Amino acid sequence: MEIGLLVRTQTQPGWAPTTRGGGRRRPLALALGRLSSRRPVRCRCLAAMQTSPPPPSVRTVSIPFSDLKERDRDLSGKIEEGLGPNGLGIISIADVPGFPVLRKTLLRLAPKVANLPEDVKKELEDPDSRFNFGWSHGKEKLESGKLDTFKGSFYANPILDAPTTDDVLVRRYPSYCRTNIWPASHLPELEIAFKALGKLMLEVGLMLAHHCDRYVMQQGVGPYDGESLEQTIASSRCHKGRLLYYYPQQFSKQEEGGSVSSWCGWHTDHGSLTGLTCALFTKNSMEIPCPDSAAGLYIRTRDDKVVKVTFEENELAYQVGETTEILSRGRLCATPHCVKAPSSENASNVDRSTFAMFMQPDWDEKLKFPSEIPYHQELIPPNGTLTFGEYSERLVNKYYQGKT
Asked: What domain of life does the native source organism fall in (predicted)?
């Protein structure tokens, strides 16, 4: 599972890009080329953390869409600042045509999905996919090991309703290869809005991936030994959208100043890029501003500090995932992040809706994991090779309940 994986990481970042030429698919491999001495890569560790005083608030690095769509424009400075070894692993894109309307159209449907009759939601569940398609609630584990009942999710592939017709693949990689489940009779507008926003976020993500490739290849670490990030995303059949609905929490004096991971636990995305929308808050079915300035997205920095990250309502944000850090040998870096619930007197009965678009390698893309990049060492043999499907499957096994 993508955004919900509560991944404890200790990483030594590292990245070797791939040449963009050649028609044959090659492994998404890690060349053991040299790392530039100009930018030492820091270790980081993820641990549960209580913060006092409140963490500082930091604005994302932002790129205008008009600049992003120019393939020959040099955006390396902003890419490095936002996604490089000293960045926050997140960047935002401003003024994307059509995005504000598509965002609100979809996010307004999240409470409607969560409030469908229980028997309808049961029909939308897909246990055989480990709840990676359709409705999911209370199936994912929090940091404590308890099941997460704070949020519900609706998953679908916004690009392909049926990624493959190969029954062997469907059985082998059900989290990616099974078909979408839509509430066609009860909420037909969901499919239209979900696909429209997901496709736009993929299109913009591909533009960003192109500039990420340009930046990585400027770092002097040698040519790609496989496919570029842009090619990897463009050729994949297993992108996944996740419409999230955070249930209202009752205000409690004891919650005030509580954990920054109170609404979504610390985790690191394991795909390539994750597109994010700014959250939409409602109270008693009325849209409201966020009722607590401390609520929202938090990120753990390279030097083990926690900061609150903000971007504008009409901006699209993108976070780096583990496989991009692996592919780039640390030139682009994934960061642990979490979500803090509002905890003020004005926050009672407030819910939150948002959407994440997970752009990731195809299930059969091969990843090589050298020992110096110790992601999930207990799951991967030293210098081992796994397909992305096998890699994500092992993570799902680690962090999710069984199929029943």
From this structure: Eukaryota
